[in-house]
Amino acid sequence: MIDRLRQSATLLVDRFSIETVCYRLWRGGLAFSDSASAVPGSKGEHDSQSIYDYLYLHVIPAPQTIFRDVARLRAAHRLTTTARKHSLESWWVPQFVEDDRHDMQCRMRTFVEAVERSVAEEADEPHTACFLSGGTDSSTVAGMLRRLRGGPVHAYSIGFEAEGYDEMEYARIAARHFGLEHHEHYLTPSELADAMPDVAAHFDQPFGNSSALPAHCCALKAREDGFTRMLAGDGGDELYGGNARYATQKVFELYHQLPAALRGRVLEPRHGHDALSPRARIQAGGRVRAPLATSHARPS
C-alpha cells in the first residue's frame, strides 16, 4: 500500500507466507517484487550465509534470500517505510489454547468438515486431478475429492525402480480404497536428469525439496491427459503424525538438555567426537532430511 499523502509505503504478507514478498531497502527508497530475482536494482550478488543455511536446512529461511541485498518478508509481518525510517513488525501471532470442552469425536468431525470445505473450494474446475503418493496428505485430498464429486477422479503417482524409495504400493492401496482412476509412471534416471534444469529454473531460490522432481514429472503426465489443475496435500504428515523424523528430533533435544560438562567431558570423548554434532544429526535424519534447528546456524 502506497500512501502518497503521508509519503509512506507498507508491505504485508499473509499469515503463512503463501505469497512471497521480497524487497530491497536503501536510504529514502524501497523496491519490491513477488520474486527475489525480480526486485529492481539488485546487484544479484549471492549471500554466503544464505548458501550455508540452504546446505544445512535445505531451505533459505526468511528474512534472507539468496541475494545479499534482497530480503523476504516473514510470514504475518508488515514493513512500513518512509523517507526517514523503516519499521518491521509482526501483525499476527498464532495462539495455541488447549480446549477440553469437546470430545475426540467432535474434534474429528470438525477436522473432517474443515478438510471438506478446503477441497470443495478447489474442486469446481472440471480439468482437476490429484497427486497421489499414498501418504496421509495426498490420500486424504484425493479421497475427499472423490467423495465430493461422486464420480471419477483421476490420480497420478510416480514410482522408482529402487528398493526403499518406491511407494507405489501405498498409492495403489489408496486408489483402490477410494475408487480412483489411477495413473502410474515409473521414472528413469535419464528422465530425472533431463528434468532437473527445468525444475531448478522454476524455483525463485534454492529449495531442497526431494519431491520437486517427481511432482514436476507427474504434472507433465497429467497435462498430457488434458488436466490443468492438480490438487495435493502439504503438511499432512505433521497433522496426522506421519513423519518419524520428529520423534528422532526429540532424542536430540533430550540429549542437549544434559549438562554441557557431562556431554563434553564424559559422553562425547568416549566416541572421539561430538556424537550428536550437526553432521551426525543430518545423517541420522535420513536421506534429504535436515535437522530441526533450534537456533540460527552460522558458519565457522
CATH superfamily of the largest domain: HUPs
Helix residue percentage: 25-40%
CATH class of the largest domain: Alpha Beta
What's the structural domain tally? 3
Question: Could you say which overall geometry the principal axes of the C-alpha atoms support?
Answer: globular
Count of alpha/pi helices: 10
Q: Can you give the mean pLDDT?
A: 84
**Weakly predicted, low-confidence segments:** 274-300
Order of helices and strands: EEEEHEEEHEHEHEHHEHHHH
Can you tell me about this structure?
With 300 residues, the chain is α/β, with parallel strands linked by helices. It has 3 domains: 2-90, no CATH class; 104-238, Rossmann fold; 245-284, no CATH class. 39% of the residues lie in helices and 17% in strands. Strands 1-2-6-7 form a 4-stranded antiparallel sheet, with no helix packed on it. Strands 10-9-8-11 form a 4-stranded parallel sheet, sandwiched between helices. Strands 4-3-5 form a 3-stranded antiparallel sheet, with no helix packed on it. A hairpin with a 2-residue loop joins strand 3 and strand 4 (29-33). It starts with a strand and ends in a 16-residue tail after the last helix.
Task: Compile the SSE list and pairings.
Elements: E1 2-3, E2 8-12, E3 22-26, E4 29-33, H1 48-57, E5 71-72, E6 77-82, E7 86-90, H2 104-122, E8 128-131, H3 136-149, E9 154-160, H4 168-178, E10 181-187, H5 189-202, H6 212-224, E11 229-231, H7 236-240, H8 245-255, H9 260-271, H10 278-284
Helix pairs in contact: 2-3, 3-4, 5-6
Descriptive labels:
300 residues; alpha/beta; 3 domains; 4-stranded antiparallel beta sheet; 4-stranded parallel beta sheet; 10 helices; 39% helix
